[in-house]
Structures are given as C-alpha cells and as structure tokens.
Design a protein that fits this description.
Blueprint lengths: L1 H36 L5 E7 L2 E7 L16 E2 L4 H14 L29 H5 L10 H7 L10 H9 L14 H15 L3 H10 L20 E2 L5 E2 L8 H4 L2 E2 L1 H11 L5 H9 L4 E2 L4 E2 L4 E4 L4 E8 L4 E7 L4 E7 L4 H16 L1
Antiparallel strand pairs: 1-2, 1-12, 3-6, 4-5, 7-8, 8-9, 9-10, 10-11, 11-12
Family: Belongs to the beta-lactamase family.
GO molecular function, one term: hydrolase activity
Protein name: Class A beta-lactamase-related serine hydrolase
Amino acid sequence: MKTSVQFLAVLLSVSTFSFGQDITKKIDSIIKDNYQKNPNVGISVGFIDNNKEYFTAYGNLDAGSPIEIDKNSIFEIASITKILTSNLIAQAALENKLKLEDYIDNYLPKAYVLHENLKNKIKISDLASHQSGLPDIDFGKLIELNPQQPVSSVTEETLTTIINTCTELKDYGKYRYSTIGYTLLGQILEKVYHKSYDQIITEKIIKPLKLTRTLTKDFNVKNRTVGHNPDGGIQEFFTWNVTAPAGLVKSDASDMITYLKAVLDKNNTIGKAALLTEKIFYKDEKREMGLGTNIMTDEKNTIYLKSGDSMGQSSIIGYNRAKNWGIIILLNQRNSKMRQNLLNEIYDTILK
C-alpha cells in the first residue's frame, strides 16, 4: 500500500508538471505568433499557476537597442497602479484607519471645500469604484498642451480648482472611469498615514514583497523599455506627480507576478486586502466593479482584471482566485487592442 501511495503521489506530481509545461508552451506560442505579426511591439509576459512562475518575452528594449526584453525589463504599468492604490485603501480599512463607506469630506486636504450639494454624498468606495460623479481631468486638452508629458501640468492647485468649483454630481452612482478619483484616494491615504503616497506604497507593498524593480519617482534605469505611441513614435515615460496613485508606477513582469502571488495568498496583508477589493461595489448590465478591479464572470470562472495605457505603453493584469492562476502582459507601445486580444486568446484557448 505504501508503494502504491508513493507511486500515486509521483504520478500526480508528474501530471501537474506536464500540465504546467503544456500551458506555458501554449502561452509562449500565442505571444510568439503575435510578436511575429507585430515585430515593432516588444512584449513581456508573466504567468503564475499554483505558485509556479513562468515568463516569456519578445523584442528589444528599443528598435535601436541590442538588448532583448526579458522578465526584468521595466515598463509603465499605467492604470494598473490603481489596483495597488485600491489595495492600500483596503489595507487602511483593515487597519481601521478609515471605513470604505465613510464620506470623503473629512479625509481630504484642507484646501478642498466641497459645495453644499456634494457634502456627505461621496463615499471612499465611490471613488474606488468609479462612481463618484466628480468631474475629471481633461486629458484631451492636456495632450494638446504637452503630448509627451500631459499630466505634468496637473498640480494640487489644479485639482483643488476642479473640486471646489464643482456644484453638482451629474452622474453620481453611475460608472465613469476617473483619474481624479484615484488621485484623491492617494491624498486620502496621505492624510490617514501622515506620509507621502510614495512612502506608503514603498512601505506597504514594494518593500514587504521585495519588488526591487517596481519604481516610483526614480526610474532612470538601464533595463527600461522605450515607449511608443500608436504611430510608432517614441514616447517618454510619465514623470512622477500628484496623479501618481492613478497611474505612474513603473514595474516589470517579474515583480508583478510576485505581487499576484501575494494577492492570491489569503494569509498575508496584501492578500487579505485584495479580498476586500474583490467585493462588488458597482454593478450594471455591462460590468461589475470591485475597488479598482473589473470583475468578469462566465459559467465557470470569475476573473479579476485591470488594464493600463500610458501614452506609449499598454498593459493588463488578471487572476483567477479559485483556480490560483494570474497573468501580466506588458507592451512597449500604446496598443490597447493588441493587449486585450492577447489576453482574450490566452484565456479562450488555454485558461477557460
């Protein structure tokens, strides 16, 4: 009997290993095929399956560089930053620094003076699930002013003016993607912790997970990819400013997989906070939203997703808690269609 049990254990181990190999070969085949069709777009992909990590990458840091992209190449993760910020908000809630259903009034910097129509109306969870109804930053105008660094002109004074002159929430309770909402969440974190957002994310996510290539203010590193706009033109990385909590963190596939491992582990602080972000805070006929997280369900699976697009890069992250897998896709060109198609193909043909 002992021999039979040992044989069964070995057989299961081999089967699991073979299954893992099969998945990664298929993922690599899809990525390679897409790269061959789009040779000007560098790709870095990380995948975790039951705590085992796999990586694949194609392309160079830049067309003129001999250095190939790998799991340690730095990309703008753009709005994937928002799930880091929402995790920090959830951590603050677990630490009783705030309550998700608290109104934002007493958590904002003193410079903000809400109009009477807005007082005791907007909850912290409303900001995090994109249903606050607040006006947002006009990116169209900002791009016209500075196509390389459009958010550079956004300051605390800019935000104060937008909020203080708002007299009505025209679509409160309805989904409308918001950069200003996550910028305010960053300022709320700064108020409850009495530290800068940079210090908070470093102390609560970057250092505990040893994310040595997840960067905030200083991202002048040798293994940084060069971003490209949809026409192929070179695009600068966004510099750090007040909008950082909404989309200015830089990272690589390896660090993002480490983050996903923590998210999928219910026994650590980040994993416990992630469970809170996965609760449904908004739902309509088109979508379900957690805190910064899109929740996609079909007949068999629940997937938690977040995409990101800067002016020169695109990315998407997703995970299935029940099946214990996660994936990160990073592109060195702004190409939201390509990154979404990559994830769709991988999911539909392999993971579903």
